Amino acid sequence: MPRFPVALQPYTIRDQLQADFLGALSKVAEIGYTALEIGPPPAEISLEDMKAHLQRLNVQVMGCHASVEQLQTNPENIISFLHEMGGKYVTLSYRFESKEEVLARAADFNAIGRHLKDNGVQFLYHNHDWEFVKFDGEYALDLLLAHTDPDLVQMELDVYWVAKGGEDPATYLRKLQDRCPVLHMKDMEPGAEQFFAEVGEGILDMPGILQVAEEIGVKWLVVEQDLSRRNPFESIQISLENLKKMEAVLV
């Protein structure tokens, strides 16, 4: 089985971060995560304190998420944060209402991606299921990929949302050769609700996904679970333990 470094997207523990930011990060490290996909700290905590805390925990920042507005109006803030923390990737999501909007945003994303690339940061796009709406017979996501520069606009594919959109995650991932350095890992419960599940606890073909991930050049796995039936800390622990059982974690 291929092995990858594994990070946590702490949106999963957003409530716990809001209650005790540094304490929640300590708990993440105790569970066994050594990397995070995380943005700047809340106003009451300085960047210096966050950085020192993560250094004590031996946890690195590999990237963060941002909005279109942030990356168009003041990208230097995100660039500076990632340089300070040692991260490489910045990711955004978007919801397209028409083919024209996809094409317009594709041009915007190319421009954002060029500026980021010139400053040592890689731009990524993160999908949900709504990119699998069709405009003129083509998925919005396929249109976006076709009209953006593969070097400037790469993917952080989310395997759950691909399945929710009606496609097989491994099959869709295979289309992204050298264009998907980061893969969001979450699973799906059986049944009509298609509720989120911990990695390895649902119906998605995780071994198949991981094999394709190696084939197409994925560099990082990032665990995220939007909603959980368990305590979120328990969920992220189960996902990491299952990835270790699959021998998918680079240690």
Automatic annotation (TrEMBL):
Give the molecular function GO annotations.
Answer: isomerase activity
What the entry lists under Pfam families is as follows: AP_endonuc_2 (PF01261)
Tell me which UniProt keywords the record has, alphabetically. Isomerase
Ranges for domain Xylose isomerase-like TIM barrel: 26-245
What is this protein identified as? Sugar phosphate isomerase
Upper classification of the source organism reads: Bacteria, Thermotogati, Deinococcota, Deinococci, Deinococcales
